[in-house]
Amino acid sequence: MSDTVSNGKVISLEYTVKLEDNQVVETNVGNAPFTYTQGTKQILRGLEKAMEGMTVGEAKHVVVPPEDGFGSKDLTAGSGGSEEQGS
């Protein structure tokens, strides 16, 4: 049986963050993997939810909605800041 991602497990992963237009914003591919402990709120809620149940070596395309990420940005307010939603 393959080891699966669940709360309390230390996880190492490679990732690439892209915008909707496919522009790469950040990646660690080719560098050291990112390591965190599942279920400890060290990463975006949406990514943590997507990781749950994955198996070693599995690849997944994840789209994190604003409410599970950094919040939505109000482009009409002119503040340039992010507006957090939910908790």
Task: Explain what this protein looks like in three dimensions.
With 87 residues, the chain is mainly beta. It has one domain (10-83): Chitinase A, domain 3, CATH 3.10.50. 8% of the residues lie in helices and 22% in strands. The protein has one helix at residues 45-51, and strands at residues 10-13, 16-18, 24-27, 34-37, 72-73, 82-83. The strands form three sheets. It has a two-stranded antiparallel sheet. It has a two-stranded antiparallel ribbon with strand order 2-3. Strands 5-6 form a two-stranded antiparallel sheet. A hairpin with an 8-residue loop joins β5 and β6. It is globular. The protein starts with 9 loop residues before the first strand and ends with a strand. Residues 79-87 have low confidence and may be disordered.
Q: What global shape is seen?
A: globular
Strand count, sense and barrel status of the largest sheet are:
2 strands, antiparallel
CA-CA gap between termini: 35 Å
Q: Could you name the ranges where pLDDT drops below 50 across 5 or more consecutive residues?
A: 79-87
Report the top-level CATH class: Alpha Beta
Query: pLDDT average, as an integer?
Result: 85
Question: What letter string, H or E per element, gives the SSE order?
Answer: EEEEHEE
Tell me the number of strands: 6
